């Protein structure tokens, strides 16, 4: 415990340097702005800004990207409440009650409980990351290639097959990413493969190109072609504050939301959508009879407070598996992992030893960022609302220009631009036909690592597949993988049979 405290204080010493404070502030401001603007999100933004990794030192850029990530969670509530248009997927539930509160003249209270709830949840979740991440890293060192391979298989399955609307589409997207990750030089044998005779592919396809193309370019093309055709009415914004009664109704919801969100952030593909829906359902169930009638009518403040806390808690918790195991549990976390790889830094159990200064500065910046975001979101909410008046064509054009300049600036290669826009068209088609984008990135980043771990595991087992049954940890993970694969199908089968039986009766 004392060692953790010492490391954290060292992290604060690094994080409060003027340059890192500036990067944290800029990240929080950009994240909030991105959260406010509908149709954009942290994944798009971080992907678009990945090229800065070639110019900025690792600690500063990771603090910057983390600020964008959780800043977007704060900002996303503004459009959900005022426009009924979630700026981020995690704020979808906020719109259910927040928009109704705004319609009944309580927009200020809804925005206040969202901002303060995010601060409370983010701070508590950061304390939990501080306490548990080193412990997880300490035990993760004991994991061998079989366990790491199965962990990555678990990430593949949960990202693609379980949480997507269609298992087939999810797996198809995953295999696209795995295929892209195999292009270039084999890590172990040094053989060049799947390049199609194109010299530029010998070093593989840059993750930055895939990320910027799929998220920034693909998102912009899709929004420009298929979204934004309806006119939205902006609710009037009153003073951002809460009454004593609203405070008393909010704080238990904040704590419950935090408790629900953190575990989901730590599991592969847990995401923030599930805990926010669970939090909303919990608050509706636990509400007093006189308050229960407000749900779905004039808006219940608990229905904003709980989901917002769950959302921010889940986002902060994604850092635990990302830093300790090198496993991203969300799309944005996957892009953060690629940012680390751009610096030649391998996330995993050794990270707390090899890059201790950067890790603890990043954790310390979360505490600082939460305070910054509270200041940015409460007094300055009027400024963020003005962003909603930016015309969409100019906004989308600006994003495309920024993405083009950023990618070209990495290697001054026009070939990279053709690849980026080709991948952008693929991203457009994937969104148009409802293919999830996240598995492509996860497959591309983790695919080569999974291949290397599988080959190492087989070498250890001298070609025996039974190597995965030799150790208790790998057997446990194998059982979890089988449960994740089979349990949803068994549940659906049981529900179908039960439904048939009910129909007969």
User: What spatial order of strands do you see in the largest sheet?
Assistant: 1-2
Oligomer state of the chains in this structure: single chain
- Give the amount of beta strand, in percent: under 5%
Q: Low-confidence runs (pLDDT<50, min 5 residues)? A: none
For the biggest sheet, the summary is: 2 strands, antiparallel
Helix amount: over 70%
- Radius of gyration over all CA atoms, rounded: 23 Å
Which whole number gives the mean pLDDT?
Answer: 80
Look at the helices and sheets and give the structural class. mainly alpha
Number of helices: 22
Order of helices and strands: HHHHHHHHEEHHHHHHHHHHHHHH
What is the total domain count?
Answer: 2
Number of strands: 2
How would you characterize this protein structure?
By secondary structure, the protein is mainly α. It folds into two domains: 2-470, no CATH class; 472-505. 73% of the residues lie in helices and 1% in strands. It is built from 22 helices and two strands. The chain has helices at 2-15, 18-36, 42-49, 58-83, 92-103, 107-140, 145-162, 167-182, 207-226, 244-266, 273-286, 289-292, 302-317, 319-325, 331-342, 351-354, 356-377, 381-386, 392-411, 414-432, 438-460, 472-504; strands spanning 184-185, 192-193. Strands 1-2 form a two-stranded antiparallel sheet. β1 and β2 (192-193) form a beta hairpin. α3 packs across α9 (207-226), α5 (92-103) runs antiparallel to α6 (107-140) and α9 packs antiparallel against α19 (392-411). The longest helix is centred in the N-terminal third of the chain and has 34 residues, at 107-140. It is globular and about 65 Å long. The mean pLDDT is 80.
